[in-house]
Design a protein that fits this description.
single chain; TIM Barrel; eight-stranded parallel beta barrel; 14 helices; 12 strands; about 35% helix
Length: about 400
């Protein structure tokens, strides 16, 4: 009898140990911190440096408490900077007027990296590739902003200005901006979001025809646009690794590469716009060629969505990672936005599904402010159950880096 009890005790210990290990295996647990339009940080109207620091520390402590291990912070929202830059002016979202330095003076990027690393979390420097003016007529534009220095580099589409992706000088300029950050700051990654060619505006064509006629060399305009984006991604990939071989390069694309009706390799979806056909971002090519280290598709839809079901896209991306890491972008901001997102099991089921899907190494939540009020009790769920055990971020065997 005693022997049986001993064996049972050993078995229980083994099961318990296995459970802890399973929960604590390497997993990316990130949060997007959007600075554009003061979405997440700093709060609108807070232009005091000391108050900004207090806010950011409070934000970090909340996410650390919830079990996160990576912050994806927007440091270049509209061709401006949350750090002293030789290329771009201080962001209006930091100081209220573009070009005005922080008061009292500090380097927000250096501060944020230091505080993030103190808590054992990675810092991913999120930049927007082509957006230059957030709102024409409303945005504050500094005298030394690149749109005034080189107005010929820019195109107006809707209420925004964008770099012309077909301009080779533009590609070099954006690459120089990224190289500058990688060379001066201890960022763990450079992170680009989904704004390549802009999302289509109904009835309006992106006005790049003049450059297409000049540089297109007779190829199809869609293919020319994709080649422009491919060129800058390859340039950035090389520049980042040359600047810091340990620095990751990640991209967070719109959740649908292509619909199956356009390409048999596409997903069984009916998305109105896609990466390949509308944003001219061939993310699959970049993964196949190893130009990026991770992909974080924005799967902000619910299970069973009529055009882009979460479960269909989760499966599709798991089969198209080509050996690179894949972190699923989860839309916690959708909480209570419709019947599906009023279901308190929606987000937990999405986490469980991605954890049970091969080739998926974690998740990123959009966005930080959504956690402030513990929507549907999901912050509690992460802290008390899903992220109860701390986890390291996943290794990338192709990057010659050692974890301390």
């Amino acid at each position: 009898m005693q022997k049986k009890k001993s064996l049972l005790l050993i078995l229980l210990i083994c099961i318990s140990t296995y459970h802890i290990y399973a929960q604590a295996k390497p997993e990316f647990r990130g949060v997007w911190i959007a600075t554009v339009d003061n979405i997440d940080w700093p709060s609108r109207g807070n232009y005091n440096s000391d108050s900004q620091k207090v806010e950011f520390i409070k934000l970090l402590d909340m996410h650390q408490h919830n079990g996160m291990n990576a912050m994806i912070v927007q440091i270049r929202p509209v061709t401006d900077a949350f750090y002293p830059s030789q290329y771009e002016p201080w962001s209006e979202f930091l100081t209220g007027i573009q070009g005005r330095p922080p008061m009292p003076y500090y380097d927000p990027l250096e501060f944020m990296i230091s505080e993030t690393h103190k808590r054992g979390m990675e810092f991913h420097a999120w930049m927007n590739p082509y957006r230059a003016v957030f709102n024409i007529g409303k945005s504050s534009i500094a005298a030394n902003h690149i749109t005034k220095v080189h107005p010929e580099w820019f195109l107006t589409y809707g209420d925004k200005k964008y770099f012309d992706p077909g301009n080779k000088d533009v590609q070099q300029y954006v690459t120089n901006v990224v190289k500058d950050v990688v060379s001066r700051y201890a960022v763990d990654a450079v992170h680009f979001d989904d704004y390549f060619y802009p999302y289509r505006i109904a009835g309006k064509e992106f006005p790049d025809n003049a450059n297409y006629l000049r540089y297109g060399n007779g190829i199809n305009k869609d293919d020319w646009r994709r080649s422009n984006v491919d060129s800058i991604i390859l340039m950035l990939s090389k520049a980042i690794k040359q600047g810091n071989p340990k620095c990751q390069f990640g991209i967070s694309p719109f959740g649908v590469w292509r619909n199956e009706d356009k390409d048999p390799e596409g997903s069984k979806t009916k998305a109105g716009q896609t990466n390949y056909d509308d944003l001219y971002a061939d993310i699959v090519l970049w993964l196949k060629n190893g130009w990026i280290d991770y992909v974080a598709p924005q799967l902000y839809w619910e299970f069973g969505h009529k055009a882009a079901p979460y479960e269909v896209l989760l499966d599709w991306w798991s089969k198209h990672t080509y050996g690179r890491n894949c972190y699923i972008g989860l839309g916690i901001y959708r909480a209570n936005s419709n019947a599906a997102w009023k279901d308190i099991t929606q987000l937990p089921r999405q986490i469980e599904a991605l954890r049970n899907t091969p080739n998926i190494q974690g998740m990123i939540f959009f966005s930080s402010k959504s956690f402030n009020n513990n929507p549907n009790g999901w912050s509690d769920s992460l802290r008390l159950e899903y992220f109860k055990e701390p986890a390291k971020t996943p290794e990338m065997n192709w990057i010659n880096s050692s974890r301390e």
